[in-house]
Structures are given as C-alpha cells and as structure tokens.
Write a structure and sequence with these properties.
alpha+beta; two-stranded antiparallel ribbon; 8% strand; NAD(+)--arginine ADP-ribosyltransferase EFV; transferase; glycosyltransferase; NAD+-protein-arginine ADP-ribosyltransferase activity; Phage_head_morphogenesis_dom
C-alpha cells in the first residue's frame, strides 16, 4: 500500500478511531450467556448434592466426598463447554473488531479526501491471530477461575458446617465477580484490538506520527494519560509513559485513542 502524503503540504490530522460499543456489547452478551448457563448448572447440581447429604454434613466424610465428586464432574463439563466455545467466540470478536476499526479509519481518511482499501496483510493477519488466541485463553480462564473458587467455597461450607442457604449466597457473590470479569474482558479487549489494528494500518499507510487523545472518561483516569493528551508520539515506538513505551488503548482499562497525522511534503 502506498504511503500517504498531504496534498496541501501541511500535516493532516484524522478523526480518531474509537472502539465500537456494539461489538463490545455483543461480545459481552456471548460471555454472559456462557457464565449464566454455568452458574445455573453449578447451583442446581450442588444444591441437589447438598440436600442429599445434609443430615451427614460435618459428621463424616461422605458429604465432602459426594460434593467433591460433583465438583469434579461440573468442572470437567464446564471447562469443556468453554473450551468448545472459545475459538468461535474469539474469532467472531476479532473479525468484528478488525472490520469496525478498518471502516472507522477508512471513513476518517475519506473525510480528508483520501480513498483507501485495506487488505489482510501479513502484519494485519498477525494481529488478528494474536487477538484470537489471547481471547481464547481469556474465555477459557473465566470457567477455570470461577470453578476453582467454587470448589473452595463448597469445601469450606462442608468443613464449617454451613447450611445450603449460606452456600448459595456465596455462590451468588462469586457469580457476580465472574460477571464483572467477563464485562471487563469484553470492554478491555475491544479497546486493545481496536488500538492494535489501527496501529498496524497506520504503519501500512506510512503514518509515522500520531497524537495522544485522552478519553476523559472513567472513574479513575490515569494522571499520566491525562498529561499525555494532545502530545505527539512515534507510531512505531509509542510514547514513554510511566517508564514504558505504550500506545493509546494498550493498557488495561485505557480508553485513550490516537489521532493519526498524515505528513506534509517536508515531514
């Protein structure tokens, strides 16, 4: 792809590419559905196992053994379910986020008089594959972490003689933690994927410089990111912030974006 140069000789700033909120919502919905199904199954089967053994709770080893056996079965079942879902869900998300970022950047270029058609270059494919694999791992980890913690809750309930109501309450709290993590994954990965493909497209177009645009959102904005607002940085290298070179949208919970700068004749 030929490198872009401003026809006026002056640098041209482009409208920043923001992460598509619809894609985040769709990804979160897919993750929520998996988590909800897992929660219903875990609560149902553990409740059934607990009720069968409630007279013997804290009196002998049979209740603990029965619940441990049930947890093994549930863990195997739901880890397999998440493993089966991870690849197609992650692939769909990566495809959608890449497509949305390309459309947004292409429209920003068209607004300034440039006509560009993006191709699946080697660099773009590398980013796509990396995004898929990272999200496959994250999706699998949702079930793994949740079920590991549930195992601990069940065993503590048995050894401490808690009733079923207390166990279900603990399971509900852990469910809330997992739901929030799924929401974070959807939001954060959407920001990261958008930022990464935008950077690859910038490089493919020969765009060397960009300006940092702070999101001005979030309850706890990073002071260093606020201070970076409006400052130029090297697209290949990133901006030195808090001791490391980073680009907008790369760090967890970072919603900052890049303003691409098309160079003039003498830049």
């Amino acid at each position: 792809m030929p490198e872009l140069v401003s026809p006026t000789g002056r640098e041209v700033p482009l409208r920043p590419v923001h992460a598509n909120q619809g894609i985040e919502a769709a990804y979160r919905k897919r993750l929520d559905r998996l988590v909800d199904e897992m929660q219903r199954s875990v609560v149902y089967w553990l409740t059934a196992a607990y009720r069968r053994n409630v007279p013997e709770i804290a009196q002998d080893e049979s209740p603990a053994m029965a619940l441990t056996k049930m947890m093994r079965r549930l863990t195997k079942q739901w880890q397999r379910r998440f493993e089966e879902a991870a690849q197609p869900v992650a692939t769909e998300f990566a495809e959608n986020s890449m497509s949305a970022a390309d459309v947004s950047l292409r429209n920003a270029l068209r607004q300034k008089g440039f006509s560009v058609q993006f191709q699946m270059t080697r660099a773009a494919n590398d980013v796509f594959q990396a995004t898929v694999q990272e999200n496959v791992g994250l999706i699998k980890s949702i079930a793994a972490e949740h079920l590991q913690d549930v195992q601990g809750l069940v065993m503590r309930s048995v050894t401490q003689g808690h009733d079923l109501e207390g166990l279900v309450e603990d399971l509900q709290k852990r469910y809330g933690v997992t739901k929030r993590r799924a929401a974070f994954i959807a939001r954060d990965q959407n920001n990261k994927a958008t930022a990464t493909i935008t950077r690859v497209r910038q490089q493919g177009l020969g765009i060397k410089q960009a300006k940092w645009r702070h999101s001005r959102g979030g309850k706890h904005p990073r002071k260093s990111h606020q201070e970076a607002d409006g400052k130029a940085y090297d697209v290949d290298k990133g901006m030195l912030i808090d001791g490391e070179y980073i680009r907008p949208g790369e760090l967890p919970n970072c919603r900052c974006v890049a303003i691409s700068i098309i160079p003039g004749f003498d830049e």
